[in-house]
Amino acid sequence: QVHLVESGGGLVQPGGSLRLSCAVFGTSFSGNAMRWYRQAPGKERELVAGITSSDATNYADSVKGRFTISKDNAKNTIYLQLNSLKPEDMAVYYCYFRNSLGAFWGQGTQVTVSS
Are 6 and 25 in contact (CB under 8 A)? Predict the structure, then answer.
């Protein structure tokens, strides 16, 4: 059974950093793109960053230069490094993955940015 498990969220002050992880179980994500989304209260879920099988990356304009997506194929894990965090980055962050078996979301990890 395929499932994704995020971790690394927490409470951080503005300007601080966090590193989110998303481990994929039940299948390998190599050969597929992976994405991070986030959803703030009262807002729609939005794409934050993506990484392709060839390691090409893309970012939402709001996080460019501050967030970095990466992956470790051997660990079947993707990461999202969040730097220079702002209050508007506060949200639940989800990883997403799709392959021939279907589309899969993690359970989410809360990022709270507050002084």
Answer: no
Neighbours of 21 (CB within 10 A): 17
Q: What is the pLDDT of residues 17-76, one digit of tens each?
A: 999 999 999 988 878 899 999 999 999 999 999 999 999 999 999 999 999 999 999 999
CB-CB contact of 114 with 90 (8 Å): yes
- Three-class DSSP category at 87: helix
Beta bridge partners, 69, equal 80
Dihedral class, residue 53 (left if φ above 0, else alpha if ψ from -120 to 50, else beta): alpha
* Three-state secondary structure call for residue 38: strand
